[in-house]
Amino acid sequence: MTTVTSPLAGRAVGLANVPDPVFAGAMVGPGTAIDPVREPTEAVAPVDGVVVSMHPHAFVVVDVDGHGVLTHLGIDTVQLNGEGFELLVSKGDTVTRGQAVIRWNPAEVEKAGKSPISPIVALEASADALSGVVENGDIAVDGDLFTWN
Fold first, then answer.
1. In this structure, what DSSP letter does residue 75 have?
2. Residue-wise pLDDT tens digits, 102-113
3. Which domains, and CATH codes, for the chain?
4. What is the DSSP letter of 109?
5. Under 8 Å CB-to-CB from 83, ≥6 apart: which residues?
6. Options 55, 57, 67, 72, the catalytic residue
7. N or C, which end of the chain is more exposed by having fewer CB within 10 Å?
8. pLDDT tens, 53-78?
9. Separation CA 17–CA 76 (nearest Å)
10. Alpha-carbon gap, residue 71 to 114, rounded angstroms
């Protein structure tokens, strides 16, 4: 059982409210999304594990149970070509829950015409593998988002 915590402070909005059909349809996997506070911030690791994928706008951490958790900072942010994103760890690094992974500014993402809403997704999981999924209300960094059973 893995508890996935929020990599960002903001408001939980649920995947169905993500302005992207692939995430909204849970095609990448089940999970939730955070509408982050509009200030320079750091996205932190949602679980303890190894960074298996690292991009300026997204990262995946796999825990000891093999659960891969994707944190995708904003929608269509790949089009920003890394501008405004600072990587604080590297692919292959071991991270602990709450450790800063990427520094970014959701307000700048919004100014660039992209949505800063950030999906947090359980990769290769079935929807019924998750419980306690938070889909609304304020959330703090490291606040519980869902449990992966």
1. B
2. 999 999 999 999
3. 2-139 (2.70.70.10)
4. H
5. 56, 112
6. 72
7. N
8. 999 999 999 999 999 999 999 999 99
9. 15
10. 16
